[in-house]
Amino acid sequence: MHKPLTTLISDCDGVLIDSEVIAFQVLIEQASSVFTNIDVGAQLSHSFGQKTESLVQQLANVSQQAIPEGFLKNLRNLTDAQIMQTAQPIQGVEILINQTRLKAVVSNSGTARVQAATTLVGVLQRDDVLILSADEVRAPKPAPDLYLLAAQRLSVLAEQCLVIEDSISGIVAAKAAGMRVIGFTGGAHIPAGHDLAMRAAGVCAVFGSMQELPQLLQEIAGWDSTPFKSTRQEH
After folding, report:
1. In the prediction, which pLDDT does 233 show?
2. Which CATH number fits domain 7-18+89-221: 3.40.50.1820, 3.40.50.2300, 3.40.50.1000, 3.20.10.10?
3. pTM for the whole thing?
């Protein structure tokens, strides 16, 4: 029998901020200029949610070419700059940000991008939300390490955590950590039929709009929608 759910954890890209399409486009443009003997777009068509370094290595393996020196650093800088300039918060994201049960944001992106994204959507105005990036662990999603680290730092049991994810790799990671997962399909990058893939991966439910979240959390976890109130002192 499941223990009561106490803690909400959210992915970042594609759940808080609509950045996956931007990052994907920069990756295709930059990788296509290097791996010219393969169709980069086709190779990456089902890849979102994976760490960029892993995707580039996969492309290098398929094309039988080495990754040029400095390519990954340049790609990361270009992607971060483009996201900071053009990415927008997911519509209605304040509904998630204001959930009192939200206690962590766990992302497969690097620290700089996660800090920029959480600043944009207002998570950093919360004084009780842990921010974890892929830089914190050796094995990012789909390994469970990030989610296990979040539970450890929050001093909660993994089985008492409910996770919001938009990617299959994220769902696999959270479930491998022993957490329950709901799938979000409201990002611009979500392909047709992805809700079915999420259900096949074992999510409790799928939702496409943040407006649906309070009712979903009430049904799954029995949580009310009392908004977060900051305890910070105004100066």
Report:
1. 47
2. 3.40.50.1000
3. 0.85
